[in-house]
Amino acid sequence: MKYFLSCLLFVLLTTGISTAQNKSEQNYITVEARRRIYNSDGTTTYRPYEPFKTRTVELLAGYRSHKNPEPLSKYGGWKKHQANSTGFFHAEKIVDRWWCIDPEGYCYFNVALNSISMGGSERNKQALKNKYGTPENWIYQTIKMLQENGFNCAGSWSDYKAIIELTGTL
Questions:
Q1: pTM of the entire structure?
Q2: Pick from 163, 144, 145: which is nearest to 154 by CA?
Q3: Are 83 and 101 contacting, i.e. CB atoms less than 8 angstroms apart?
Q4: Degrees (nearest 5) of the Cα angle 138, 141, 143?
Q5: Which tens digit of pLDDT belongs to each residue from 60-79?
Q6: Is residue 123 part of a domain?
Q7: Is residue 51 packed enough to be buried (19+ CB in 10 Å), middle (13-18) or exposed (0-12)?
Q8: Pick from 52, 49, 47, 99: which is nearest to 77 by CA?
Q9: Could you report the per-residue pLDDT of 140-158, keeping only the tens digit for each?
Q10: Is residue 5 part of a domain?
Q11: Which of 44, 48, 119, 153 is 20 to 30 A from 132, alpha carbon to alpha carbon?
Q12: What is the extent of the structural domain holding 144?
């Protein structure tokens, strides 16, 4: 029995090493970011922007997307899993996991883009006017682009009042 367990442990360990080696050979994308430095005197400084390797889900080794995606509710909820429908967004614990629940009762992942806003500077206003013509066209084009890329929520610091005013919905 000890020999069997030793062999099993060896197989598991070498499989793990092999998997780790394969992951290092996968494709990456490069993004630029600054490192935040917390100084001993309580101040914060930032290093200059530098490139970092990262991956999107599609670049993970062994990831395969579904050819026929599951149907979603109008809020982006997963129609295969329904909880209590309250007419409001809420969180609910189902078995041992917390889920975001849309107003129709479907479980979903909240995918938000932070700070959806037209901006306040004259430069922003002119650029948006040149590109979109009207604020209404800007919000409709922005929402369309975000939904096409899997976003289903306006995150913190978004101009939610303009979004509601321009679309009539939240």
A1: 0.54
A2: 163
A3: yes
A4: 105
A5: 888 887 777 788 888 888 89
A6: yes
A7: exposed
A8: 99
A9: 899 889 888 888 888 888 9
A10: no
A11: 153
A12: 112-167
> How far is Cα 160 from Cα 170, in angstroms, rounded to an integer?
7
Domain membership of residue 147 (yes or no) is yes
CA 94 – CA 46 distance, rounded (Å): 42
Residue 149: inside a domain, yes or no?
yes
Residue range 97-154, pLDDT digits in tens: 999 999 999 999 888 888 898 888 999 889 999 999 998 899 889 988 988 888 888 8
Question: How many C-beta atoms lie closer than 10 Å to residue 110's C-beta?
Answer: 13
Cα angle 40, 43, 46; round to 5? 105
Q: How far is CA 139 from CA 160, 162, 166, 170, in A?
A: 11, 9, 7, 12
Average pLDDT along the chain: 80
